[in-house]
């Protein structure tokens, strides 16, 4: 992607450098390019520039499929990154087997400037862990690799139950589609809900799956012979501004509260109460970003009732107050990148 011409000499897209390692999964390598290649600012300029690099000089990189890809940049590109993303690889060698970096990989990572944001998709987390970037910090990976990750790197606080973890300047995700959730989360963190939702629509994926959602849901595709909770969720989304009781949702599906709660968790990975809070937080974010409604009115329209209740929920979910959140995204610049969103608490 080339930099967009601009009359503003100070304009510079946020540069995302994706590190392509031998044995990479083509699907996961493509996620950052698809998600970060879409967002535009009000003048139509791309707000991200995505570059792929290798640990070697430009040339072919093997994939886990029956084809290789040609990477046009060597490891020096890592020195230009604002964000570095390490997708999964099935050929990490000593990194995966012993928890140590190869000389080649260590030399490549040495190009990364202090303060650069780091992110991994699936087993890419092993690279960050072997480099010591996750010591004492929470991290996740594909549930099937979590036990090994914890055994190799005991200083890392591994959570195998979540889709992704945002620990400020280091973010990690579970496997495959969770990489999409992570990248959308970064866009949302940098530029707000409206921009992230637009990217999601263009990519034809759900606009938001909270990082704290379970990786593995027992019944991801409900049996067509059994009732689902889809109607209840649609019903609730249409009246988030109203008090919604669990029994009201269960009645929409003609289920008992107990059956509904079990089925809901099987389908979404969270409880009805957690899901409602997530939706109300997203509604509040959207209203704070896109309207001039007072904080009290936003709280009522999002279903929190009072500004104090909304403040507590946004503080827990985003680490900021409603006023600070609005100020960040109304600033229209890079201030949004200062937001730190810790992973949603498990419950």
Spans of 5+ residues with little confidence (pLDDT < 50)? 1-6, 332-347
Q: What is the average of the pLDDT values?
A: 88
Order of strands, main sheet, comes to: 2-1-5-6-10-9
Helix content: 25-40%
Number of helices: 14
Radius of gyration: 21 Å
Shape: globular
Q: Report the portion of residues in β strands.
A: 5-15%
SSE order in H/E notation? EHEEEEHHEHEHEEEHHHHHHHHH
Straight-line distance between termini: 42 Å
- What structural category do the secondary elements indicate? alpha/beta
Considering the chains and any ligands shown, give keywords for the structure:
disordered N terminus, 39% helix, disordered C terminus, two-stranded antiparallel sheet, globular, 14 helices, 347 residues, 10 strands, alpha/beta, six-stranded mixed sheet, single chain
């Amino acid at each position: 992607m080339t930099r967009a011409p601009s009359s503003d000499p100070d304009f510079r897209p946020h540069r995302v450098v994706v590190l392509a390692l031998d044995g990479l999964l083509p699907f996961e390598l493509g996620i950052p390019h698809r998600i970060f290649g879409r967002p535009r600012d009000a003048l139509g300029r791309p707000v991200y520039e995505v570059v792929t690099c290798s640990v070697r000089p430009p040339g072919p990189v093997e994939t886990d499929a029956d084809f290789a890809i040609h990477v046009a940049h060597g490891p020096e590109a890592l020195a230009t990154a604002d964000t570095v993303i390490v997708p999964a690889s099935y050929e990490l060698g000593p990194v995966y087997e012993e928890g140590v970096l190869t000389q080649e990989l260590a030399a490549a990572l040495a190009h990364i400037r202090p303060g650069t944001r780091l992110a991994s998709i699936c087993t890419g987390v092993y690279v960050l862990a072997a480099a010591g970037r996750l010591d004492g910090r929470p991290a996740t990976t594909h549930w099937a690799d979590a036990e090994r990750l914890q055994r190799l790197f005991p200083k890392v606080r591994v959570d195998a139950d979540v889709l992704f973890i945002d620990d400020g300047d280091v973010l990690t995700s579970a496997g495959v589609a969770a990489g999409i959730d992570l990248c959308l989360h970064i866009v949302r963190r940098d530029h707000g809900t409206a921009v992230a939702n637009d990217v999601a629509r263009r990519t034809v994926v759900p606009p938001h799956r909270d990082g704290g959602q379970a990786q593995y849901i027992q019944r991801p595709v409900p049996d067509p012979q059994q009732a689902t909770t889809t109607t209840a969720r649609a019903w609730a989304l249409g009246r988030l501004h109203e008090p919604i009781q669990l029994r009201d949702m269960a009645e929409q599906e003609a289920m008992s509260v107990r059956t509904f709660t079990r089925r809901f968790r099987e389908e979404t990975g969270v409880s009805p109460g957690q899901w409602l809070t997530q939706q109300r937080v997203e509604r509040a974010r959207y209203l704070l970003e896109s309207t001039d409604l007072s904080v009290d009115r936003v709280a009522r329209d999002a279903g929190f009732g009072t500004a104090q209740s909304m403040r507590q929920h946004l503080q827990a979910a985003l680490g900021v107050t409603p006023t600070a959140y609005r100020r960040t995204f109304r600033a229209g610049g890079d201030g949004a990148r200062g937001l730190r969103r810790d992973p949603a608490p498990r419950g």
